Each structure stands twice: as C-alpha cells, then as structure tokens.
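In response to reviewer comment 3 from the previous cycle, which asked for concrete evidence that the modeling workflow produces usable outputs, we include below a single protein chain processed end to end. The sequence was submitted unchanged, and the resulting structure tokens are shown without manual editing.
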Amino acid sequence: MIRVLLVDDEAMIRAGVRAILAADPGIEVVAEASDGREGVESARTHRPDVALVDIRMPGMNGLDAAAGIRRAAPGTGVVILTTFGEEEYVVRALAGGADGFLLKTGDPRELLLGVRAVAEGGAFLSPKVARRVLDGLDHGRSTGRLLSRERVGELTVREREVLSLLGAGLSNGEIGRRLFLVEGTVKGHVSTILRRLRVRNRVEAAVLAHDAGLVADRGGAG
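The workflow returned the following structure tokens.
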C-alpha cells in the first residue's frame, strides 16, 4: 500500500485529489495538512511514501515545505502540485529535491502514475511542465532543445535507453525489467548519466530527456 500525505491550503483541492487517489486500491491517504508547517510535522509523524505538496500556500510555501519534508522524512518522495505558468517555482524546487511535478489541471491518470512512480523511487513530470521548465535549466529558449540534444549525444546507446525510461517516470526496478538489467546496474547507469549530463537529480535528467525528444508526450495532459 502506498501511503500519501496531502498538503494544500484549499479544502476543495484536497478533496478532489483524495477522490482521484481513492480510485486506486493500492494508494491510501494517511494524512492531510492545510499549510506547509503542518505538512512537515505530518510527514515527520506519519512517514508517508509520497507527499503531494501545493506550491503556493500562505505561511510556509510549498518550496520550503518540500525541503522541510525531505529533512523530516528522508524516505518520503515529494511531488509538487502546480498550475500552468508557475514553472519558475518548479525550477527552484528542483534544488530542494522534489521528485515530481504535476499540473492541478492535468489528466487524473497522471496523478496516479506520478504517485506510483515516485513511491517506487522514480521521477515523474507532467510533459507540459517538463517542456516549459527546461528553459530555466538551460541558457535560452531558442537554444534549449539544441543544447539538450548535444548533451544527450554524449551518452552511450545504453545510457540513452536508460535516460528515456527515466524520463518516462520509471523506477530503477522498472527500467531494469524493461532492459533486462539488474537494478544495481541501472543505478550505476543513472549515476553516470547524472554526472555526464551535469544535472543534480533524476528530475532534472527527466526534464532534459523530454526536451531532447527521448520521451513521447502522453496525450490528455491538462
């Protein structure tokens, strides 16, 4: 059972997210919080597998809450809930160790996929978020895609295969099963990919994979 913490100051949003998650019998909402500080304390108390955190909240915002949750419960994956046009916040959240980004207006199926991917150690980005966020990671809107392709071109064929699946939100175990590799080998490839692409974490690598064209967009995103 995947245990989830919801952190959002809007009760209606929490109710909607909770209803979507209830459609998956393998996911359970174990706690809710209406602000960032309460979210950090709930994470410390309940140790959920995944925390879904709104990026804009009064008091402690989602960026600070995400970082606080990672400190309070290092085993908890953090997924940021955002609205379209807030990609500058998402870029800042990468430094706080967020594992995923989802649009509040996106396809409900992406919420379920994202929670499962992050719970299993993967990263997950709404494709529309990924495309817009990359401009904050590269040096210009006009050259971002070219730079991404050039950086990916430095990888081996196998590393590009791993990066493509990482960008699709798969965990190390899922990547291993898809490519017939043991999980330890996948972890080694991921570490090498992060170093060679000069990115800080799996999320940045996934964003770059999207922009380099290694990951096909899933239809239906909001």
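The CA atoms of residues 79 and 100 lie 4 Å apart. We consider this sufficient to address the reviewer's concern, and the full set will be provided in the supplementary archive.
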